[in-house]
Structure formats: C-alpha cells, structure tokens
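Follow-up to my post from last week.
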Amino acid sequence: MDRPIVIVGGGVAGLTVARLLAGNGIKSIVVERENNLGGHVGQWACMATDTCLRCHCCSVEEMVNYALTSDMIEVRTGWELASFSPSAGIAKEALLKQTGTAREEIEQAEALVITTGFQPYNPAEKILLGHGRLDQVFTLAEVDSLLRTDKLSLFTGDRDGLKVAFFQCVGSRDASSGGNYCSQYCCQAALRMALKLIHEDPRIAVTLFYIDLQLAGKYGGALLKAAQDKGVRLLQGVPGEIRNSNDSLEVIIESQGQNLHETFDRAILSIGQRPNALESFVEQLGLSADDFGFIQSKDTLDSSRTSVADVYVAGTCCGPKNIENTVSHAGQTAEAIMADLRRKGI
Ligand SMILES: Cc1cc2nc3c(=O)[nH]c(=O)nc-3n(C[C@H](O)[C@H](O)[C@H](O)COP(=O)(O)OP(=O)(O)OC[C@H]3O[C@@H](n4cnc5c(N)ncnc54)[C@H](O)[C@@H]3O)c2cc1C
Ligand code: SF4
Ligand code: SF4
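User reply:
Got it. Predicted complex:
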C-alpha cells in the first residue's frame, strides 16, 4: 500500500491505531497539533505508592517511543488537519496546516482516523463550588499535574495532616450542565490519588463523596479495599456549596436527602470528560455530533466507522473513556481499517 493512513491526534488513541497498523505493515502519518505526543495522559502523574496502582499512564511513554522510532509512522507534531477530501474512487487528499502559520502541505491518503480526544470539564460555571475563586479548591487534573511536576507543595502549602475532600461527578452524570453520562475514569483515578496523597503524607485524612462508585475492571475491587485499609472515608453525597471559612473550607453536602455541613482544608473536584468543539474539517466531512457533542460514529455495533467511507474514529473524541477502554476502542478501529483495506484488495 503506497498511501498512508492519516491519523489526526497523537494521544493514546492515535498512537494505538498507528502502532497496530505499523505492526501489520501499514504506514501512517500522525498529525498532532501540540509539540508533543501523548495527549492528556502526558500530563498525568504516576500514582504508584509502595506498589503500582495500575493507572496505565506510563503506557503512553512506550507508545510515544514506538511512534518516534518506527519506520512505518511519520510523526508531524505542531501540525493539524485543515481538510480531507474523501472522494470515492480517486486518491483521497489530506490538507495539513502547520499550527499557527500559513504553511500548508497536501498528503495523498488511503483513509482518515479522527482521534482528537476530549477536554477536561471546566468547573467555572459551577460558581458555588468556588473553583478559581477559592485557593483551596483544585481539580483532579490540577493535582495530577502538580504531582507529575513534583510541585505538590503548591497543593499542601506548608500544612501537614490536611483534611482533603474529593467530590466525584463534577460535570458528569449531571443533566444541568449537559454532561449526563459517566466519564468512566474518575472514581478509580480519585481513589488512586487519595492513596498517593496518603502515601506522600500519612497524616492526610481523605473523605471521598460519590454518587455511586464505578469500579468496573479487574482491579477496581482491590483499589477500593486499599483505600478503605488506608482509612479513606467514603460517603454518598454531592457538594451543594463550598465556602471560605477562616482559611478552611466549609462545605454543604447534599447527602441522602439531608444537608451535611463539614469543614475541610482542601477540596478536589473530580471533573468529567467533555467533547471538544467540532473542528471545521469534521463539519466539512458532514459528520455530526451525538447528544452530548462527541463525534457521532456509525452505530453502537460499529463504533469505529463513521457515516463517511474511509473516515474512522477512535478514543475519547466519540465518548468518554479511561485509558484501557481507549486502547481497546483504538484496537477495534485499527481492525476495521485493515478489514476494509482487505475487502478493497489493498
Ligand atoms: C484529570 C484526569 C486524569 C485521568 N487519569 C486517568 C488515569 O489515571 N487512568 C486512566 O485510565 N485514564 C485517565 N484519564 C482519562 C485519559 O486521560 C483518557 O482516557 C485519554 O487521554 C484518552 O486518550 P485520547 O487519545 O482519546 O485523547 P487525548 O488524550 O485528549 O488526546 C487527543 C490528542 O489529539 C490532539 N488533537 C486534538 N485536536 C487536534 C487537531 N485538530 N489536530 C491535531 N491534533 C489534535 C490533542 O492535542 C491530543 O494530543 C484521566 C482524565 C483526566 C481528565
Ligand atoms: S501504571 Fe500508573 S501507577 Fe503503575 S507504574 Fe505506571 S504510571 Fe505508575
Ligand atoms: S467514574 Fe465515578 S466520578 Fe466519574 S462520572 Fe462515573 S461515577 Fe462519576
């Protein structure tokens, strides 16, 4: 096959598709808007305590190394897709544009895979939760980045033995903010972070408020037990309001029909995954968004193909996923591409 597959997005999904295609002798071009590969996972910390907590984040390093050293994968960081012409029967063309410049290049392509990912929910619209207004209120993404860059002191300040509250489902499972679905990753990510914080300072006391805990997967039960063994307090409830009170946070929690009042030193909001705005090339292709704004794939039983021939999707651009499910979906997409190429005798 002479013409490569163009993959837009160099996160876990894009890198997984590229790697599986490369393993089957199929060339691809990974077009990544940022200057680095890895997508969001490149910002998340290793959550290992005395033991690996299986967050899967380190798998992205291996994926990046593979992409950068494979003869079958051309990596274009700092580039994006301007348009794709999927005309049947003639060569398909991808118009690539260097990010922030007017430079453009045309690549002949066999197919297009969209793996443009998600964006973390911005809790600014939840004014009563105080994020951006109260210095002691963080998102899971912010604490993840601080852990990754060895700047946890910006979270703890000069205090030992903090009382920390996690609030789950912020911007997920929430019809009022347009995110009435489960973001899949955050219950386990919050439990891992709770264990990591306690590992860093065993005097930290963690309470985790949840709607119900989503612990699907082989290791969810073990993670819950580890958190309970370390004294993580688990309470059903959602935050109504977070206020400043003498350098602490006074929190009103709606729990089982009652309003609880509790005081904490720090709050961590477990923000959900939200769709990126539809890119102009997606709209030009005639693809639409689903009820929540994610790119619509063909149907539930064929979630890798789209309504446009030779245009595929993978990963969180078409719905929220953790890393394991992103890899699994990207694997299905690579299989679908190879099946279609075989069918066409390519
Ligand atoms: C705070 C937080 C913590 C998390 N922790 C975990 C965890 O511990 N374990 C876990 O399993 N999951 C975790 N997740 C979920 C995990 O981040 C996702 O499963 C994963 O990032 C999905 O990968 P992706 O490739 O679909 O998307 P992304 O990671 O969003 O990658 C998409 C890539 O596409 C690029 N892109 C977008 N548009 C364009 C364009 N037009 N042209 C070129 N490039 C483009 C982006 O720059 C990005 O590099 C976490 C999520 C959050 C928010
Ligand atoms: S899976 Fe996660 S916790 Fe385990 S070593 Fe890798 S990054 Fe660390
Ligand atoms: S994984 Fe947990 S925190 Fe995340 S949306 Fe689902 S139930 Fe809420």
